[in-house]
Amino acid sequence: MRVFTIDAPFGAPQHAKQKMLKEITEAIDETYHFPDTRGWLREYPAGNVSQDGRVDAEPIRPVCALETPELASLDAKRKLVQKIESAIGAAYAGIANVDEVLVLINPYPLEDVGWRASLQSDKPEIVEAVRQLNG
What we know:
Layout: E1 2-9, H1 14-32, E2 37-44, E3 50-51, E4 54-55, E5 63-69, H2 74-92, E6 102-108, E7 114-115, E8 118-119, H3 124-134
Parallel strand pairs: 1-2, 5-6
Antiparallel strand pairs: 1-5, 3-4, 7-8
């Protein structure tokens, strides 16, 4: 299972947000090669966002945080970051500072994730999928 959250300003049209969420999900699925990606979009008015201690002083710089299994390939991470930045940039162009999108990849070991009444490290199919991913 992979989870992503995007923090961005209000203002993107619904169709642009739907396209962005779909593209990010597809990029994550392509990178990790197994299903179950969950995404959340949190939008804020500029008056509720501080950047370097200043409120509403510049266009909001979006942030995308990923919670994912460990991934050894730096090239795969680079491609994923580029696709995420591109999707966010297309959705929020003219609304946010899309030249300054921050993508945080927070990897977790399988023994640190509870799922379906056990740890992911207890599920042979998950362990094998991650082994193949990093093999």
